[in-house]
Amino acid sequence: MRYIDKSNCCAEFDKYVNNDSPSVWDEFKTDIKLKLHQHLWREQQGLCIYCQQEVPEKKETEYKIRSHIEHIRPRRGHNPDKYAHLIFCYKNLSVSCEGFDCKMDDSLNPKKEFCEHNKENEYDEYKFLNPVECRDIEDYFSYGIDGTIHPNNNKNDEDKSKAQYMIKTLYLNHPTLTDMRKKQYQLIIQEQEKGLDIKDFLNPHYELPGFYTMLKQLFLQLGV
Ligand SMILES: [Zn+2]
To answer: Is the dihedral of CA 17, 20, 24, 28 positive or negative?
Structure first.
């Protein structure tokens, strides 16, 4: 996960919320929803809010569902009114993958097993590291070249337990994700051998490479 700055609102969405005062998410106008989805996707520079895999931009004609608008503080749950006031709150909205490898073919019937689909309605106010609130969220995690993610050992026990809670809640060590991260790491190694300048590659572009935080940590900070 990485920090997402939410200061750049979506004008169409704001206008709709101010004019129509919607309260039920499922009645949300689909054309505005698409615009919001695309806006959030750009804000996250093309990566899932939680696992950081590359998510394709949502197009009107796209039939494959590869991502959805995620309520970070859940809109449903054991206590449904708890976050009801945040259902249409821009700062609570993000784009999450569907819990499988976005590049996987539909014919393989991919199961939804990580990120929002594992998190569901879980949100511990004390432990949840919220990517739109926690500015140093990247520092809570460390990555292995085998694709695994761990709490950062340099953090204190309290912070490590928060990181562990996130890894478990989002199932960030799901075998599919560890495999994807490992492959991404190995791909960059191969590209470096062909002359890729890693500093230039990881310079923040409009769209970021998948698992951006892992790459930054392994190649720039640790110099693996
Ligand atoms: Zn994800």
So the answer is: negative
